[in-house]
Design goal:
Blueprint: H1 32-44, E1 52-55, E2 58-61, E3 65-66, H2 69-75, E4 85-86, E5 97-101, H3 107-121, E6 128-132, E7 141-148, E8 153-154, E9 166-170, H4 178-192, H5 204-207, E10 221-222, H6 251-260
Helix pairs in contact: 1-2, 3-4
Bound molecules: zinc ion.
């Protein structure tokens, strides 16, 4: 079992050197559409939304770093090192219904579990997920959801063509809201069906510190067709989560799952 405890409020790791000495062509202030794109690019590049400010018609991050539209686009360009990875063992493609026993979850955790299950079912994979409490009829595999202390979660990887049988979510995760809790649960379910961390080779990409998880005894096999994108927020399967996550799969997460299942 691979422990994947994660902590929220990870400091942004991107260092800006955009503000000083920007001698690009003199530009007028960006239009409303351009401002929207700059902010979207910054969020996609991993900046917390509350770190992005609009002042006098210009967009700033970290209070004093002005970001032009061009600079925000460059932040999304990646070095091609990060792709997505799976374990050697996967869930059998002949397995139709994965049931999730969510009876121990209430409140935010319960709502987030439903949203997480919907994330998978929206992809029309070879399996579907169904939340149950105790009636396992029609279930081809069962994953039981447990609570634990703290924030974050842990799960394991498939064996024998079946998903890992349980995962744990810290009840403290709920303090970050339903979307971030949805992110953590969807992440742990991702492990249960065979996804490794997208930054397994360098956890500092999402965690700010840490190294290579290595083979982990389970393999780290590149999933064909997954795009590059070594960014904070580039994959729901990054090692660490931020305090504010959307809870949704990124496009490369969707590609990874659709390729496998
Ligand atoms: Zn993990």
């Amino acid at each position: 079992m691979k422990n994947c405890r994660m902590f929220g409020a990870v400091a942004p790791i991107l260092v800006l050197s955009l503000a000083c000495g920007d001698t690009g062509p003199e530009q007028g202030p960006p239009s409303d559409d351009e401002i929207s794109e700059i902010i979207e690019n910054l969020v996609a590049a991993g900046f917390p939304e509350d770190d992005i400010q609009l002042y006098d018609g210009l967009v700033y991050v970290g209070r004093d770093a002005h970001v032009t539209l061009e600079a925000s686009r460059e932040m999304l360009e990646t070095d091609g090192e990060l792709e997505q990875y799976r374990t050697r063992n996967l869930v059998s493609r002949n397995l139709d219904t994965i049931c999730i026993d969510g009876r121990r979850f209430s409140g935010t955790l319960s709502t987030a579990l439903n949203w997480s299950i919907n994330n998978y079912n929206a992809l029309n994979l070879t399996f579907s997920m169904r939340r149950i409490s105790n009636n396992t009829s029609g279930c081809d595999a069962l994953i039981t959801a447990f609570t634990t202390s703290g924030s974050g979660g842990s799960a394991g990887f498939p064996s024998g063509g079946r998903p890992y049988f349980r995962f744990f979510i810290g009840t403290g995760t709920a303090q970050f809201g339903t979307n971030t809790t949805e992110h953590v649960i969807t992440h742990e379910l991702g492990h249960a069906v065979g996804l490794r961390h997208s930054d397994y080779f360098n956890r500092s990409i999402s965690c700010g510190s840490g190294g290579n998880e290595g083979d982990g005894g389970v393999g780290a096999i590149l999933i064909p067709g997954t795009p590059s994108g070594a960014t904070v927020g580039g994959s729901l399967m990054n090692s660490c989560f931020r305090s504010s996550e959307s809870g949704e799969f990124t496009s490369s997460d969707r590609t990874a799952l659709r390729t496998l299942y």
